Amino acid sequence: MASRRVLNIGDKIDITRKLKSDATEKKYVSKVQDFKDDDKVVISMPMERMEYVPVKTGDKFETCFCTKNGIYKCKSQVIEIGKDRGQMVCTIQFMSEMEKFQRREYFRLEYVTDIKFAKLSRDYKGDPLEINPSDWNKATLTDISGGGMKFNSKASLSDAKEVMISFTLGKDLTSEFHCECQARIVMMTTLEQYPDMMEYRISYLDITKSDREQVVKFIFEEERRRRNKMNDRY
Description:
Elements (H helix, E strand, L loop, with lengths): L2 H4 L5 E7 L6 E13 L2 E5 L2 E2 L2 E2 L7 E8 L2 E15 L2 E8 L4 E2 L8 E11 L17 E8 L3 E6 L8 E8 L7 E14 L7 E7 L4 H24 L2
Antiparallel strand pairs: 1-2, 1-6, 2-3, 3-8, 4-5, 6-7, 7-8, 7-9, 10-11, 10-13, 11-12, 12-15, 13-14, 14-15
């Protein structure tokens, strides 16, 4: 499984455990602390609402790692519990191959920020600099995934099939990320509550692999940040 080639000490982990009592899922957070073997990793004791979660050897999880190279997941099992420099830790063993998130697994994140988009002509050559500044339209992103996004705009491009989108994620965080790529309009409808506003659903066409991974990573970390913020309230 060669975990050392994929993971680094300090990588964040999201852990999902299905409770046998009522089949509900619980989500915890952790970090990579050390390596024991290619298929064994020492992690900090899973936490929920800033408190350790009691786990025991034999417990099985869905484990999701947020790395600099993307998001990876696998099934794992606790094989040892102990302490490292006074900190509670547990050793997990991978029970399946580590798999990078695939397109079908992208989940959508509700996220609101200003973006812009422009209709592309049939003879567009692929250079954003070819687009006239006056052709850019203001829009509001409402949700995003690794495969596409949804946004609202007063601009109505009823005859458009492809657009160029320009957006920045994490403007209020230290890790700001900007992307421009071509996209295909999947659906365009008028918002019932705002008749002068159009809702667009688009899928990326030429987004680079690294940019897509950055989008997925942002979604993963933003969802985690929100969950931690929510837990801190209790």
